[in-house]
Specification:
Keywords: Membrane, Transmembrane, Transmembrane helix
Helix content: 55-70%
Structural class: alpha+beta
CATH topology of the largest domain: 60s Ribosomal Protein L30, Chain: A
Number of domains: 2
Strand content: 5-15%
CATH class of the largest domain: Alpha Beta
Number of strands: 5
Protein name: OmpA family protein
Largest sheet: 5 strands, mixed
Length: 219
């Protein structure tokens, strides 16, 4: 009788231990999955942080290289350099309401051409020449349709001057912003003067898409 009870006890205990073992195995498996996910997340975060640090170091290196290349014009105050953008007050380049370069502005662009050409030769970048105006409309009777037109022609003439001074044609392009993106309020004469400007900004060269593979035709 006692032997029969012992056998029955063992038979009921075995499934319980098996279920407990399965439960612990499931818990351990879930823990391993959570730990693996946490490790993958940490590795991904570390990779992203490293890429961000490298990007910031590259940007800092680019700015320092540009500052060295433009040390002369920067020192005498003829240009500004803010976050990698070279700023030139419009009054230095153009008369009021005109898109024709002044002699002073033409000489300044000539002085910028050599250091910019050297800078571009060492880096895989191109220059964006951007024209900006204040928010006052063009005077009636002028040859420009609006501020977009004026800023576009000014940017284009600066681009042509830089090309004439030896910058590679595939390394310079122009853009027009009109009165958009002001750097100062337009409610004072000083602010409007700051907004009438041309900026020259190095930017990464666009990557060309790979040409599609051409399959050989059957004979």
């Amino acid at each position: 009788m006692d032997e029969q009870l012992e056998i029955e006890h063992e038979s009921t205990a075995a499934p319980a231990w098996a279920a407990f073992g399965d439960l612990m195995a499931g818990v351990l498996g879930a823990f391993v999955l959570v730990l693996a996910a946490a490790l993958v997340g940490q590795l991904d975060l570390a990779t992203r942080l490293q890429a961000e640090v490298q990007q910031r170091m590259a940007e800092q290196s680019r700015r320092e290289a540009l500052e060295r290349a433009l040390a002369g014009p920067l020192a005498d105050g003829r240009i500004t350099l803010v976050e990698g953008r070279i700023g030139i007050n419009s009054a230095v380049l153009f008369a009021t309401g005109s898109d024709q370069l002044l002699a002073e502005g033409r000489a300044l662009l000539g002085a910028l051409a050599t250091p910019l050409r050297t800078y571009l030769a060492q880096r895989d970048e191109i220059l964006m020449v951007s024209g900006f105006t204040d928010d006052r409309g063009v005077v009636a009777g002028m040859q420009f349709a609006d501020n977009w037109d004026l800023s576009a022609r000014r940017a284009l003439n600066v681009t042509r001057a830089l090309l004439a001074d030896g910058l590679p044609p595939d390394a310079v392009f122009s853009a027009a912003f009109g009165s958009q993106q002001p750097v100062a309020p337009n409610d004072t004469a000083a602010g409007r003067a700051l907004n009438r400007r041309v900026e020259i900004a190095p930017t990464p060269r666009p990557r060309r898409a790979a040409a599609p593979a051409v399959s050989a035709s059957a004979p």
